[in-house]
Amino acid sequence: MASVTVKRLWKEYGSTVVLENLNIHVKDHEFVTIVGASGCGKTTFLRMLLGIEAPTKGEILIDDRPLLAEPGPDRGIVFQRYSLFPHLSALDNLLLAADFAGAPFAARLFGKRKRAAIDKAEHLLNTVGLSGARDKYPSQLSGGMQQRLSIAQSVMREPKILLLDEPFGALDPGLTADMHTLIRALWREHRMTIFMITHDLKESFELGSRLLVFDKLRHDPQAPEAYGAGVTYDIPLAHNKVGKDQGVPTLA
Amino acid sequence: MRRVINRHPGSGSRIALGLLPFVMLAALYLFSSNLRLAENPNDKLLPSLNSLGAAIHQMAFKEDQRSGDVLLWLDTAASLQRLGIALSLSAALGLVFGIALGVVPYVRATLSSLVAALAMIPPLAILPILFIILGLGETAKIALIVIGVAPCITRDIALRVAELPSEQLIKAQTLGASTWQLVLRVVLPQMWPRLIDSLRLTLGSAWLFLIAAEAIASTEGLGYRIFLVRRYLAMDIILPYVVWITLLAFATDWLLRQLRARVFPWTETR
Hints:
- The complex is a heterodimer.
- Chain A is an alpha/beta fold.
- Chain A is built from 6 helices and 10 strands.
- In chain A, the strands form 2 sheets. A 6-stranded mixed beta sheet of chain A has the order 6-7-8-3-9-10, with helices on both faces.
- In chain A, helix 2 (90-102) packs parallel to helix 4, helix 3 (111-127) crosses helix 4 (143-156) and helix 4 (143-156) packs parallel to helix 5.
- Chain B has 2 domains: 4-46, no CATH class; 71-267, Orthogonal Bundle (MetI-like fold).
- Chain B contains 10 helices and no strands.
- Chain B is globular.
- The mean pLDDT of chain B is 92.
């Protein structure tokens, strides 16, 4: 639903160059995985896409229009942790998105519209395998369940772009396979454009339709901060090509 | 022999140990009281249990000869009413300003230094000003408590809002929340239990201000009574009043804690 164009993007903190001259075009419904060494600007890039960090130079276009410089409902985010609302049950965490969209003043839906939102939320809970945890608070869920809920919460608002900042980084390795199936199913069903940062090389190759490797293009041993990172490898991943229909698996 | 830090009392002995200091204090009191009264039966400083009981009976169960009121209950109602009104006002002010300070950077830039300065003013120092401006009625007493307590609650709430993980606020925005919706559904509900904690912490100073204000200008109230009977060295009334005030403060604290656990179950499960 959305293409992303990054044009001559620079990010500097004082004299430290984090990203230099980034040029990327991501087509609609691509699943971009991003890997790179620590401190090479992956998260900074994601924060700029989110609109909570401003580029020093250059611009980011979404569907050829400049990105709004604050977080908005067109770009969903799943952080490594802390992105659920502890005072709301799993169901209410999902309903919140519908409440925000449908009730500007009361921030709460009632009656028929609430019923419709609950149906949608319950369907999503089912998709992410959490129907049994409907009335539980986030602190009563395991780490893996929390991340699935957080993903479902973002999908509830149907963002055009979904940003994932190492969403499975804090999980047991055994859980990640399930999460991969889930995220790929959601990607196909909701046709989002996805950017996902990961530390896991295997994951980055398996999961996406395109892999970006961030690293420094030039290096000055006397002044390591003088040059920033760019995209050193841009690898299309044929096995997950956009449009290739593999059906929609769901989690049990 | 295990280390001291690893040896825990059982549940029965824990209760017994908790009661022990109180029992010892009571015993110490009775011992000293007997000692003094043996020397001088008219001693007023440490009255015997009998005279304490008589005074309690007089204050709590018999009508005053002059006014026809039962004084302890009259005083309790007056004090609790002042405290209740003042604490509700302080909580409301603290919540509104605390959230505004914590959420909106422009409000923070404008008001945070003012609130910090207000919180530093010793409230008792401006009590004369309050009496001059507001008169000697209820308003001045309530204002004193509010001035003493509200800035602390405001600062506490503002800090608690700032402690919310930024991830939560960003996530809410990506779900389409406006500032108003964000405050209503994300910030405010998480601040209610904090507000109760904050009230519990300020309860002590609220009582302090209440008693100070009543001592200076009042016609009824727990603090008023204590300072009134001080003129007659009536320790047999002062001591039960102090115990009664302590019990009231303890009960309020307990009730607030219960309320927090009942109404906000999600804070208990983390």
